[in-house]
Every structure is written in C-alpha cells, then in structure tokens.
Amino acid sequence: MSYYYAKTVHAPFEVAVSATREALAQEGFGVITEIDVRQTMKAKLGEDFRPYLILGACNPRLALEALRLEDKVGTMLPCNVIVQDVGSGRTEVAAIDPVASMQAIDNADLKTSAALVAEKLRAALDRL
Q: Global pTM?
C-alpha cells in the first residue's frame, strides 16, 4: 500500500499551487498550515532547493469526527499535500493517504472516516 496519491500536471509551480488550493476547497478542505521548503532550506542551511510547498489541509467536519473517535489522532493532522516543481513546466501534487497513515490505530470507525478523507483528497487531485 502506498502512503500517498500523486499527480503531475503540465503547469508552472504557482499556477499548480493555486489550482491545488481551489481543488482542496471544492472538497471541503482549508489550508491551515503552509511550509515553504525552498525558503526554509535557504534560510536555515543556505542551500538552494526546487520550489516545494507543504500544505496542511484540513476538512474541519471530518477532523472533528476523527478527534471524537480517537483523541490522539491529532498527531496525524492536518493532511499534508505537497506541491513541487519537477521541471520542464511540470508540477507534481501529492497527498498523504490517510488510510495508510491510520493503519497503526486499531479503531474500525476511524478507518471508515479515513477512507472518506482519502476519497476527498483523491477527488481534489483528480480535479487538477
């Protein structure tokens, strides 16, 4: 079982970032955290890195349901979605597979909830 879903689009990085935010929103996710890996590597290590953004996506209703089912599941939230420049005008977007990440938790109801989140994340990537 893979731990992520990915899709490569023929679009510049910034266009793909905007499209990813919109696709996530259409599936009920908001971006509540954002890490600019390129900027962080430059600031902390003086190293150049390709455009690479980590978006912390959260569907509040589904997050609340998961937290009610398992109070420590917050250690696995939000769902990370990466957007990275892969060259030649192409950008890859990848999202965590919440079903794979929740395998360590023995809670059947949570697995059902994770499957719904997975379906919505996959649908967001399919919109790109």
A: 0.94
Residue whose tokens read 């690479």: 52
Q: Report the candidate in 118, 13, 127 with the shortest Cα–Cα distance to residue 59.
A: 118
Query: Using CA atoms, how far apart are residues 94 and 99, in angstroms rounded to an integer?
Result: 15
Which positions ≥6 away from 63 have C-beta within 8 Å?
A: 77, 78
Segment 82-114, tens digit of pLDDT = 999 999 999 999 999 999 999 989 999 999 999
Give the HSE-up count for residue 107: Cα atoms under 13 Å, Cβ half-sphere. 18
75 residue type, one letter: T
In this structure, the chain runs to a length of 128
User: How far apart are the C-alpha atoms of 91 and 55, rounded to whole Å?
Assistant: 15
Please answer whether residues 93 and 15 qualify as being in contact, where contact means their C-beta atoms are separated by less than 8 angstroms.
no
- The CB density around residue 114, as the number of other CB atoms within 10 Å, is 25
